[in-house]
């Protein structure tokens, strides 16, 4: 990792690999397949887009886990009513 990457805040290959492994472990422990997460994401997009403008292509749904609990996290960017149809 170059000093320029560190300055820009980019994760090192080691950090990236660690994050990917954590995602795999969380999925295994939660019994939610990536396919099921896609279905959940599509349904969330369908429901919310009826009520508020969202940027559907930027919606991210993930599963996180700490020592006590497992969480389904949806990151849903809201669109601007005036600039999007």
Protein model, in words:
The structure is a single chain. By secondary structure, the protein is an alpha+beta fold. The chain has one domain (3-75). Helices cover 47% and strands 14% of the residues. It contains three helices and two strands; from the N terminus they run H-H-H-E-E. It has helices spanning 3-8, 13-30, 34-49; strands at residues 60-65, 70-75. It has a two-stranded antiparallel ribbon with strand order 1-2. The longest helix has 18 residues, at 13-30. The radius of gyration is 17 Å and the shape is flat. It starts with a helix and ends in a 10-residue tail after the last strand.
Blueprint of the fold:
Layout: H1 3-8, H2 13-30, H3 34-49, E1 60-65, E2 70-75
Antiparallel strand pairs: 1-2
What is this structure, in a nutshell?
This protein has 85 residues and is of the alpha+beta class. Helix content is 47%, strand content 14%.
Strand content: 5-15%
Q: How many domain regions? A: 1
- Main sheet characteristics: 2 strands, antiparallel
Total strand segments: 2
Low-confidence segments? none
- Quaternary status of these chains? single chain
């Amino acid at each position: 990792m170059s000093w320029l990457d560190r300055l820009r805040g980019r994760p090192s290959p080691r950090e990236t690999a660690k994050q990917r492994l954590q995602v795999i472990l969380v999925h295994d422990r939660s019994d939610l397949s990536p396919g099921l997460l896609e279905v959940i994401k599509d349904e969330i997009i369908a429901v919310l887009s009826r009520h508020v403008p969202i940027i559907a292509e930027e919606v991210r749904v993930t599963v996180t886990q700490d020592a006590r609990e497992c969480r389904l996290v949806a990151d849903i960017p809201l669109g601007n009513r005036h600039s999007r149809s």
